[in-house]
Amino acid sequence: MGYYCYILECNDGSFYTGWSTDPHRRERQHNSGRGARYTRLHLPVRLVYVEEQPSRQAALRREAQLKKLNHQRKKELIQNNNSQ
Q1: Residue 49 burial class via C-beta count within 10 angstroms: exposed 0-12, middle 13-18, buried 19 and up
Q2: Which is it for strands 15-20 and 45-53: parallel, antiparallel or unpaired?
Q3: CA–CA separation, 64 vs 41, rounded Å?
Q4: How far is CA 20 from the centre of its chain?
Q5: How confident is the model at residue 57, as a pLDDT?
Q6: Apex 78 CA angle, 76 and 82, nearest 5
Q7: CATH top-level class of 3-82
Q8: Into which family does the record put it (predicted)?
C-alpha cells in the first residue's frame, strides 16, 4: 500500500494539504462534501500535487512540513512539480 501527501487547490485559490493511500479517491470525497470541513466551505477542489511517501509516518511528517509552507512556497512547489 502506498502513502501519499497531496495538495488540493480550492475554488477560492487557497490550498488544502492532506495525506491518503489514494489521493484521487480522497479528492472525490472532498468534492462530494465528505472531506475536511475546510474543503466543504471552499468547493470545488482540484488535486494539484501528489508526493509518494515510504510509510504512513513519513506521510504524516511530510504533511506537517507542507502545511507550514506559505501560499507562495506551495505554489512554487506545485509549479516545479508540474514542469518536470
Answers
A1: buried
A2: unpaired
A3: 22
A4: 9
A5: 98
A6: 115
A7: alpha beta
A8: Belongs to the UPF0213 family.
Q: Is the pTM of this model over 0.70?
A: yes
C-alpha cell at 74: 506551495
Peptide bond into 44 cis (omega under 30): yes
The pLDDT of residue 81 is: 85
H helices of the chain, in order, are 23-31, 37-40, 56-68, 71-82
Is pLDDT at 52 greater than 70 in this prediction?
yes
The string of pLDDT tens digits covering residues 17-39 is: 999 999 999 999 999 999 899 99
Longest dimension (CA), the chain: 33
